[in-house]
Amino acid sequence: MKRTEVFIFSIAVFLTIVAWVVIDIYHIQQKINMQIGFKPVEVPNYQMDQKVIEVLKQKVE
Questions:
Q1: Cα 17 from chain centroid?
Q2: How confident is the model at residue 47, as a pLDDT?
Q3: What is the per-residue pLDDT across 4-61, written as a single tens digit (0 to 9) for each?
């Protein structure tokens, strides 16, 4: 094998191992969340009251 072939092979192995570790960590995190019973966070859609904003502006001044 030439030097460039060894280098490319080494990079490919390294990236494969990094991807494997990342996927494994993600899988473990999902498994723990399912065991605990966490659900995805739902962000409510709040509407700001203009009166509150005006009162806050007056307090700043």
A1: 20
A2: 79
A3: 999 999 999 999 999 999 999 999 988 887 787 766 778 778 777 888 888 888 888 7
Tokens of 40: 């995805």
Task: Please give the residue range of the domain that contains residue 40.
Answer: 3-60
Residue spans of beta strands (DSSP E) within 2-52: none
Concatenated DSSP letters of 39-53: -----------HHHH
Structure tokens at 46: 């709040």
How many angstroms separate the CA atoms of 20 and 17, rounded?
5
State the amino acid at position 30 in one-letter form. Q
The three-state secondary structure class of 23 is helix
